[in-house]
Automatic annotation (TrEMBL):
Binding of substrate, residues: S67, N118, E162, N169, Y193, Y245, V263
Family under the similarity heading: Belongs to the glutaminase family.
Annotated GO biological process: glutamate biosynthetic process; L-glutamine catabolic process
GO molecular function, one term: glutaminase activity
Keyword terms: Acetylation, Hydrolase
Natural source organism: Phormidesmis priestleyi ULC007
EC number: 3.5.1.2
Catalytic activity: L-glutamine + H2O = L-glutamate + NH4(+)
Protein name (database record): Glutaminase
Keyword Acetylation among record annotations: yes
Gene this chain is encoded by: glsA
Subunit composition and interactions: Homotetramer.
């Protein structure tokens, strides 16, 4: 735990009090299990690259990671296959469309635009190596363990909820199979994608994961390397341009640091060589990002001049 007198800690305490009363936003309901969470949950955590932790709210509260997983699985695919092979299957262009859009899949290159939207993430996940579904899942969980620094597991209810209702994702996967962007193991790739989205994390875990990216791929709490350092640039570039979906431009303009949101209400942001930031608060705006999370990141960036430019 960080020094209570540290400016980060006192600012986090003030942000918590400032935004706790906010009632804007709505819970994600298209995944039925996500509509059951408490909208009042709120936590903020900052982890520095030298391993100091500052947090406020219930940083132990577990939730599913959802789209924030896309960042780390993209890194894993790069580490397994290299840039050229991954780029052949998933582009690096922002879409300007919602995260679950499939319109552009049927246009131009037939390749999903980037690994942060659902189509691109399913394509990335389909690249994960392993003999059979269990080995692929175990290798993915191992990758997450390096970032988080403790054992991790999948929430079965959320996984089943997504698996039985994720028809848009299934449609995307079939379209990508049609264009040869993913192989014939369509259901296996989708299961692994739903499993990665159902990984249980807390706000502190997310901040440690973000700090690992800030620290060139080494977990600052354990000293464990989670990703080769030369792929950090790839991961942070697509986070910066595509991580906030059709809000990415405004985010880059206002906040100015790579970030990724998820529909369970998490947001991570990375200040290279300095800190990882995470916020958890389930009510979402129209783009699928946490309302309190956006405000907290904006305020933090302004106060500590975190904008990259
Ligand atoms: O596939 C989905 O729709 C969800 N499992 C993840 C989407 C998500 O988190 C988008 N984030 N804002």
């Amino acid at each position: 735990m960080g020094d209570l007198e540290h400016p980060f800690q006192s600012f986090l305490n003030a942000l918590y009090l400032k935004y706790k009363p906010l009632t804007d936003g709505a819970l994600a309901s298209y995944i039925p299990e996500l509509a059951k969470v408490d909208p009042d949950c709120f936590s903020i955590c900052v982890v520095t690259v030298d391993g100091r932790i500052f947090e406020v709210g219930d940083a132990d509260q577990l939730f599913t990671i959802q789209s924030i997983s896309k960042v780390f699985v993209y890194g894993m695919a790069l580490a397994e296959h290299g840039r050229d092979k991954v780029l052949a299957k998933v582009g690096v262009e922002p879409t300007g469309d919602p995260f679950n859009s499939l319109i552009r899949l049927d246009e131009s290159s037939k390749r999903p635009d980037n690994p942060m939207v659902n189509a691109g993430a399913i394509a990335t996940t389909s690249l994960i190596k392993g003999t059979g579904a269990t080995e692929r899942l175990n290798r993915m969980l191992d990758m997450f363990r390096h970032y988080i620094g403790r054992d991790v597991y999948i929430d079965m209810s959320v996984f089943m909820s997504e698996r039985s209702t994720g028809h848009r994702n299934r449609a995307m996967a079939h379209l990508m199979r049609h264009f040869g962007m993913i192989d014939e193991k369509i259901d296996e790739a989708l299961d692994l994608y739903f499993q990665q989205c159902s990984l249980m994390v807390n706000c502190r875990d997310l901040a440690v994961m973000a700090a690992t990216l800030a620290n060139k791929g080494v977990n600052p709490m354990t000293g464990d390397r989670a990703i080769p350092s030369h792929y950090i640039r790839d991961v942070l570039s697509v986070m910066y341009t595509c991580g906030m979906y059709n809000f990415a431009g405004e985010w880059a303009y206002k906040v100015g640091i790579p970030a990724k949101s998820g529909v369970s209400g998490g947001i991570i942001a990375v200040v290279p060589n300095q800190v990882g930031i995470a916020v958890f608060s389930p009510p979402l705006d129209a783009h699928g990002s946490s309302v309190r999370g956006l405000k907290v990141c904006e305020d933090l960036a302004r106060e500590f001049e975190l904008h990259m430019f």
